[in-house]
């Protein structure tokens, strides 16, 4: 007679086989399917992410201030929204100031470039012969820019829909996270009972261990990365405002903070915008900005990052690059951000598998 466990095992094998067949037979359709599932689950995934970030504050308020659960949750969200609102209050004027700077400085920069070209064109005959080709390429570049802008304007409705969808998912994620935080013990008990009723005790313990490891890595990675990026953003602002005295220092330091959240490539991406912005009105100062950001990246990579992150995400730079490239190509920005903790979890289980096989060989 076929046991219940064997039936479950057969169903699981068939299900995994079908998924693998679909992935090999039509990988593009398979990836689109995964993206659709992630898009559908995005409010729930966002709610879990919010819970990971807010739960420590709720627990602190419950434990130290003896506040009721619902009051702790509401206080936590009010504090977070207040901080975000305060940040936007400073950031929005900084963005407007940056745009004004670009609009004002670009014409004078173009005039400077034209004067530079006129001076040196008169000295070199070769440059005079190249001038028509340069002009032709500039016209082509301008036409391409106009084409891009026209495409953007024609797709403006789609962008509005995307922003609306993102806003809806964010609101739903916040609402769901409040319910999850309020009933987290009951939800965990129900999920644990469901797990033990579906799988054997041994398998259930392994699944719980997997979720415990995943929760630990994701939590420490997200919180650690956030704290690390805040410190780097503050240091960037101090350097931009008080040392280098560049324009739009608040907005540029916010860009540095935001891009620092992206693993490995983020600091390099974040350096581009401040350098270009400074180059518009002061080429010499842009070199100092580049040098300052390079030093800041070295401090972050060698001291601040390792100190905050600790050994929770102990993977090599090569594995980080591979994970970021694969995650980004398959799932975009979300894939880039989550690729490192996922790679860390995979590495833990690969190491466990190798160690267990080596132990078996040694015992034989």
From TrEMBL:
Q: Which domain of life is it from?
A: Bacteria
User: Per the UniProt record, which residue ranges are transmembrane?
Assistant: 7-24, 30-58, 70-92, 156-182, 287-305, 317-350
Q: Name one GO biological process term.
A: transmembrane transport
Can you say where in the cell this protein is located? Answer: Cell membrane
Keyword tags: Cell membrane, Membrane, Transmembrane, Transmembrane helix, Transport
Query: In what way does this protein cross or attach to the membrane?
Result: Multi-pass membrane protein
Pfam families referenced in this protein's UniProt entry, alphabetically: AI-2E_transport
Gene Ontology CC terms = plasma membrane
Give the protein family.
Answer: Belongs to the autoinducer-2 exporter (AI-2E) (TC 2.A.86) family.
User: What is this protein's record name?
Assistant: Membrane protein
